[in-house]
Amino acid sequence: MSSKRKLPERILMGPGPSGVHPRVLQAMAMPLTGHLDPVFLEIMDEVKGLLQMVFGTENELTAPMSGTGSAGMETVFVNLVEPGDKVIVCVKGLFGQRMVDMGRRCGAEVVQVDGAWGDVIYPEQVEAALRQHPDAKLVSIVQAETSTGVLQPLGEISGLVHDAGALLVVDAVTSLGGTHVDVDKNGIDACFSGTQKCLSVPPGLAPVTMNSRAEEVLLNRKSPVQSWYLDLSMIRNYWGQERFYHHTAPISMIFALREALEMLAEEGLENAIKRHQELGAVLQAGLEEMGLELVVAPQHRLPQLTVVRIPEGVSDAQVRGRLLNEYGIEIGGGLGEFKGKVWRIGLMGSSCKLRNVTLVLSALREILDSI
Amino acid sequence: MSSKRKLPERILMGPGPSGVHPRVLQAMAMPLTGHLDPVFLEIMDEVKGLLQMVFGTENELTAPMSGTGSAGMETVFVNLVEPGDKVIVCVKGLFGQRMVDMGRRCGAEVVQVDGAWGDVIYPEQVEAALRQHPDAKLVSIVQAETSTGVLQPLGEISGLVHDAGALLVVDAVTSLGGTHVDVDKNGIDACFSGTQKCLSVPPGLAPVTMNSRAEEVLLNRKSPVQSWYLDLSMIRNYWGQERFYHHTAPISMIFALREALEMLAEEGLENAIKRHQELGAVLQAGLEEMGLELVVAPQHRLPQLTVVRIPEGVSDAQVRGRLLNEYGIEIGGGLGEFKGKVWRIGLMGSSCKLRNVTLVLSALREILDSI
Questions:
Q1: Dihedral (C-alpha) A276, A279, A282, A283: value to the nearest 10 degrees?
Q2: ipTM for this model
Q3: Which domains, and CATH codes, for chain A?
Q4: Nearest to B26 among A1, A10, A262 (CB)
Q5: Which chain B positions have a beta carbon within 8 Å of A29's beta carbon?
Q6: pLDDT per residue over B275-331, tens digit each?
Q7: H/E run at residue B125
Q8: pTM for this structure?
């Protein structure tokens, strides 16, 4: 970085991006190879294998899209949805709403299943929607809702969706690497994520996976995919054995993703998930001990993202500002319905360590005690 | 990078990515800030100002899209084109064809103006198309056609397009930073580029700019932009004063873009363009001295990308393979009509230096002499 400005040293404990490990930052700084270089093609294969591991899938079509998490969401929608299709979208936060928006932009008739912000979607709701709309092509749901901190159980819903002959689409942006996604075991037909949450890679890639059922839907479309850039019917030929040039892959980002996934493999996915669970519980207990109220019921809390109600009379901007300016800690504010009402504290990937839990609890206590 | 594999040291002289300067690689490795951090918002403003400089524009709507160059192309098409619109696309190579594809996916009626691969589009051709289709909403053309090495003059065509009341859309992926794009002076209404060519930033961002005429078309659309991810009517509120969260910006890539643009400002845009012109001429003279035939007529040659006909009886794969494996030099092969028939030698951004010209000429001579 030029001398013009010294960047402040941040501890990233918001809803993403999370902190990036020095090994991954070093991978970002590796001199480039070309995107068709034989060595780069080998790295692509390694990334694919490692993504299959973390997704818990054997899906052949598993690759990082060249955009951020929202590009992953858009990838799944533009590839699976055609104008006139009926899709059921479960909405219990901002990212569910975003899927409604994307579905409509694909020309779909969107049936919305609404849950309260801070709660899960219940299987009976999905069952009722499927009974009323037996022609629905897919049901989409967010596993880890970044706007509310809710962990959505998938097992029962997956069975209902498949009994109805529909595809199950899951948003795993905030869950991947910190929670079991288990694509194959959970019967998820299409799944997308982002790199800047529990994978602790800078934002810029969106891992996506689709099983053969979803791929068949893609390959039997009547109309072309409305996005050229995200058209998996072409991208699969670059990530597959054909290596057919589509667009120039974000090479450095892929170096970084490989490094982070290798670190995850070294730690072991199970150990990483356990680390998130344990430290998330420590943070949540500490916050409640301070008398703060958590928005989500204990059984539905995400370990990697905790949503705290801002105490009455306390200024959102003041507290977050002091955390940032005095302690160098970033936590997130609320979005949508929760704007100004909650804080979102992330413990994702590299940021998920005991000293960060201790620090954020102590810093928050000091600030709250002083006002 | 982990010890698992040592990456080979490449000299990137293909059609992009180009070599990335160590200062820019270091910027990629800077620890992250959040995407809404006040410091990051200042960096966004700096990037915007520097992009305005290199585009030669005062357009308020100037920002890097979170994808590679093709995402920039798609951004312009999805934002300006609505179903049923008529658009004129000039095609004289692969990237013109790609715009036809994107226009159709937006539901446009695409009128194609065809030129020979290796030649420019002539103003008379555009004039005739506009006369036949006075209701065309826009005319799009590639300034630096990466598949053929042709530099397209824009001045006369720009006048014709505006006389007809249409918008001029220009692909500046390979030109920006190496050739005068001069958005305002050339009357370009919407322009897109990529970072991995003459800006010498890793692939992953697509600078885009639109003037107020184009912005008005965007804001008066009848239908929503079909892409949520690339919807400029929302993204302008994140890059504008509102700072409204849209998606998580690729933070490290933006650090790198800022660093590369600062280096360009230090050198001076005029000096950088002159460097490309002078060294491109040295390379082209050297290739012709070796008896190799250049595809493009002298007056239409791009300095930053030279397209050479492969001599009869010489194996494309063998020569490129030896350059890569014995000398560590990457040059590009042909695409589309030119597949197997040409080599594409890039001198872009950081890769554009005298020692690379000397090296690639000598290496190519040694290989050709030995077969």
A1: -80
A2: 0.97
A3: 11-17+269-370 (3.90.1150.10), 22-265 (3.40.640.10)
A4: A1
A5: 25-26, 28-29
A6: 999 999 999 999 999 999 999 999 999 999 999 999 999 999 999 999 999 999 999
A7: helix B123-132
A8: 0.97
